[in-house]
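Q: I'm writing up a methods section and want to include an example of the input and output format. Could you take the sequence below and give the corresponding predicted structure tokens, formatted cleanly so I can copy it straight into the document?
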Amino acid sequence: MSQAAVDNVTAADKLRAASQRRRTRIGEVVSVNGSHALVMLDEDRPDLDRVHRPQLGAILSIDTGTCIVLGLVSAMSVPAPSLDSGGKDLRIIELELIGEFTKPTPKTPARFRRGVSTYPTLHDEVQLAARDELAALFAANGSASVRIGVVKQDVAIPATVSVNDLFSRHCAILGTTGSGKSCAITLMLSAVLARYRHGHIVVLDPHNEYSHCFGGDAVVFDTSSLTLPYWMLTFEELVEILYPGRMNCAEEIEILGDLIPLAKKMNLSNSTAGAKLMAERREGSNITVDTPVPYRISELLTL
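A: Here is the clean output for your methods example:
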């Protein structure tokens, strides 16, 4: 074996040894079902304090040989409690498999990817995720990210959110009453505004939970201060105002639905910006009765 090969093997062994030193075995796999796995915990260990014991939401790792699978603790139970006070309980935790790390080599670092390509097998060892794994899992992608706290499992690791992903994709914060959903939203929005001072965020707040959360940075509208122009109403809303009873006015409503798009196009053609917009929209062919484009009632009456 060449010296270079020996050096590579030695470096790989050192990486594996260092990784093992950072790991703490807590149990083994006893069932695998699709994206979930059941883990039987080992007996209580005096060297593990409460913070480092598996809890709901904790990240655990399973070495499958070709990669390291990460799982999120979603349930914990004792299906067979011991009747003897000194007996050992059968303790089971349920893991939701969320992704995997490719193993590092002397030339390439470990990379995380969602989904699992190599599933755990029975009796595979389950460990607490190492700090470097947690850091890579929660690492911010790109520079457009803000810190909102720390990872509970390891407070040395910052918890960040990607601003682009947060506002360009659907996102839900779920929880029971009193769990802190509103506080979490306020925290994230405050972190974003602290970094991007010129950002504009619209919060629909029907229960008036956020009106006092952002101090002078917020402009609060309510039913007494918010006004909407008539041209922002949908056709259905406009008809409700103009024809509240809708008795014997079907023909008028049909004519109104044909004339409103014409009035919008007319108003656009009277301005330079509007003419440019019409050109981009192929002479206004995409303007419908519900398109939020300004128009004048006076022009509508002349049609």
